[in-house]
Amino acid sequence: MLVTKKQLKIQLEQILELLETENEEIIVTDQGKPVIKLSKYQPSTPTKELFAPLRGKVKYYEDLTTPITEDWEEP
Asked: Would you list the DSSP string of 17-57?
């Protein structure tokens, strides 16, 4: 749904209600150009939970903090 900045200012309460109930994305325009996208807040998955399936499956074969002494070849 597209709304102008003026419409947003006048109808803010109704637009927020629409976002909450319909889960619709609102694009706010200024002089016909989109400037802001409003959407319902959705909490993100914590990093610990996101990478939990990989825990214990990654193997390191070298010390990752050791500097590399070899030069890289230019392509």
From this structure: HHHHHH---EEEEETTEEEEEE----PPPPHHHHTGGGTTT
